[in-house]
Amino acid sequence: MGVYRFLLTPRWLLLHGVAMAAVAGCLLLGWWQADVYQDSHGRHELRDREPVAVAELASPGAELGDGADRQVVATGTYLAGQQQIVPGRVHDGTLGSFVVTPLETDDGMVVPVLRGWVDDPEDAGAAVPAGEVTVTGYLLPPETSDHATVRTGQQLDDGRMAYIAPDQLAQRAGVSEATALHGYLLLRDESPAPAAAPVALDVDTVAPIRDVSPWQNLSYWAQWWVFALAAVVFWVSIVRNGVRTRRRADTPSTTSRGDDVSAPAPSHAPS
């Protein structure tokens, strides 16, 4: 084992540590990409499920939890006086506003409905349909202040709010957080269809799951694990090369240290 003692010197211990850290890092990054793939793939599957009644997945004031990303159906009446415009939202490269209208269902739940986008809040499409309507769309969690496009401290006019969240609806529209859905519904379909409506928004634009294909995450996972294997091969190669170098240095010379038999014998002069 003497030939391997050099592997325990400080320089080699540092090399072992760097190699182990590289392998562990690559494995962790690979697992992370695999988790991202599973999460994004699972969320896409949720969005593809058939719509169910909103009351089956959500209750007033409670977190959406597993209900997020699911399609739901809700029937009720829009609260026209509590509609809110969310300014500073871009659609197809044009600056405009989101239109959010609370819908009160038959059981008393208030569902904020993102009905779409308008370039001008005075557009006829922003008008609130009267009477009972049935809406179908995606349940999405509340926005945060990071989504707001208005300046910090900016005073908004009545009927405007900075982002879609229960606290904003409570402050700006007087919607009680105790009766409101903790999130909002992105409208996909409405019956009866109104004569004029905001521009419909795609769920992958409003709440993108990932900016890359889920299969790309899977390929990244494989690449990181290949990098981990390459780090192991590189480390083994360096260790083997070090062992061979020490063995050659420790091997004694095979050159004979005896008399040179080719040298001529000394001559003796006659007495």
TrEMBL record:
It is found in: Cell membrane; Membrane. Residues 246-271 are annotated as: Disordered. It is a multi-pass membrane protein. Its main location: membrane. Keywords: Cell membrane, Membrane, Transmembrane, Transmembrane helix. Belongs to the SURF1 family. This is SURF1-like protein. The keyword Membrane applies. The chain crosses the membrane at residues 12-32, 220-239. Pfam families: SURF1 (PF02104). One of its GO terms (cellular component) is plasma membrane. PANTHER family: SURFEIT LOCUS PROTEIN (PTHR23427), SURFEIT LOCUS PROTEIN 1 (PTHR23427:SF2).
